[in-house]
Amino acid sequence: MLMVDLIAKKRDGAELSKEEIEFIVEEYTRGGIPDYQMSAWAMAVFFRGMTPAETAHLTMAMARSGDTVDLSRIRGVKVDKHSTGGVGDKTTLVVAPLVAAAGVPVAKMSGRGLGHTGGTIDKLESIPGFAAELSPDAFVEQVNRIGIAVVGQTGNLTPADKKLYSLRDVTATVNSVPLIASSVMSKKIAAGADAIVLDVKAGSGAFMKTVGEAWKLASAMVDIGRSVGRRTVAVISNMDQPLGLAVGNALEVREAVDALRGEGPEDLTRLALTLGAHMVVLGGKAGSFKEGYEMLEKILKSGKALEKFRQFVAAQGGNPDVADRPAELLPKAPYRVTVPSPADGFVHGIQAEEIGLAAMTLGAGRATKESSIDPAVGIVLAKKIGDPVRRGEILAILHAGREDVTDIRQRVERAFDIRPERRKKPRLIHGVVE
Ligand code: URA
Fold it and tell me: Does position 114 have pLDDT exceeding 90, yes or no?
């Protein structure tokens, strides 16, 4: 097989076979296909797309390109959850203990943040003592003992995806539905998921800027799941503004604890219950979404989810008292700077990506993979879309590590669109693909 022929075949819109796709993935991973040919192929895919069968073959070839996690020693259906990335998205911190308390084993690998979106592992590591590294045996033992473990990525998982994703990043080929769908699904499958619940974000702070694009991506991922025997459900949720109020690692843990106490922001709680309800259905603990949702509401009210969070934090070396005294025990930034509203009116929009980038500039996120982060800093919104506001009233509070953050304050102010006319609260859940 010659790569040049496979590039031409895709360029001309023909369908590649399983063997041809496996050849491309295996050869590229081992260095037998140069980046310039892989770039040309990715661009051909960008313009021509891929059939559902091609996308499934690409997913499985990438999933098998490196180590895979064997979760067979964990009892029960392992349901993974994945978000395509948003600002203030601390849902995993709430959903994981919530569904674990319902009896669905959570054996999760999570990522670190890059750019305007944060990562679950960075958030968890803001808890004093918390360790995101466990040996494979300790990981399995912990899930069997308490029903939950969340660790950073270890081992050489999906090297084909790592290499191709970096190449796409610099060849303007990231934004292709089959390439994103196979990239995400290959990682979940390599991480050992039996079933997958996806939170596909749509809006200004997300990869997919429109609901239409998000539907396409969600459908592509659900199709992959169906063809490779992993039950997959995708929820399409709003990312036209940050989720909840807090953006920044320790600030988000605090908000997640509030949600686990039943006192969190309404959007965060509802999204966590929605994703969780799909997880308990796929995990065989509820017969329907409604039953799952009601079960999780009860668990939240009973304090069992918060107790599971305590157990989880303690098992991974963290101080479990953060569940009771988060304000006291989590790191705090030395400066608070308020962002006042420049006008009277209603909040019509909050550019989520701008808020994410402002938080990153404060030190909450990484501009490059090598940057270090400050767990204490970030932004807490005081207003969300639809809220009335008076001139001079606080829109947001910056939690900063330095005194002079004038440029960031102005950036956050500009991220708010304030207009005189009323504005309805936006819809949180746009739909579900099953
Ligand atoms: N996230 C991924 O993991 N892969 C992509 O291709 C895009 C977003």
Answer: no
What span, in angstroms and rounded, lies between the C-alpha atoms of 139 and 121? 15
**What single letter denotes the amino acid at residue 173?**
T
Q: Are 181 and 219 in contact (CB under 8 A)?
A: no
Residue 154: the pLDDT is 79
Least confident of 119-128, 146-155, 341-350: 146-155
183 is an active site residue:
yes
pLDDT at 100: 97
Q: Which of 193, 203, 237, 186 is nearest to 433 (CA)?
A: 237
Residue 361: pLDDT above 90? yes
The string of pLDDT tens digits covering residues 56-102 is 999 999 999 999 999 999 999 999 999 998 999 999 999 999 999 99
pLDDT score, position 371: 81
Position 300 scores a pLDDT of 97
Is residue 165 within 6 Å of ligand 1 at its C-beta? yes
The span from the CA of 193 to the CA of 185, in Å, is: 10
Dist. CA 282 → ligand 1 center (Å):
24
Q: Which of 39, 83, 126, 183 is catalytic?
A: 183
Ligand 1 pocket check for 335: Cβ under 6 Å: no
Whether the Cβ atoms of residue 192 and residue 69 lie closer than 8 Å to each other: yes
Any ligand 1 atom below 6 A from CB of 184:
yes
Range name among 146-155, 313-322, 362-371 with the lowest pLDDT average = 362-371
Q: What is the mean pLDDT of residues 367-378?
A: 88
Q: Catalytic annotation on 254?
A: no
CB-count burial class (<10 Å; 0-12, 13-18, 19+) for 420: exposed
Residue of 78, 81, 90, 168 marked catalytic = 168
Distance, CA of 233 to CA of 196 (rounded, Å): 7
Which member of 10, 82, 90, 366 is catalytic? Answer: 82
How much is the pLDDT for 169? 87
Nearest CA to ligand 1 atom 6: 180
Would you say 86 and 205 are in contact if contact means Cβ atoms under 8 Å apart?
A: yes
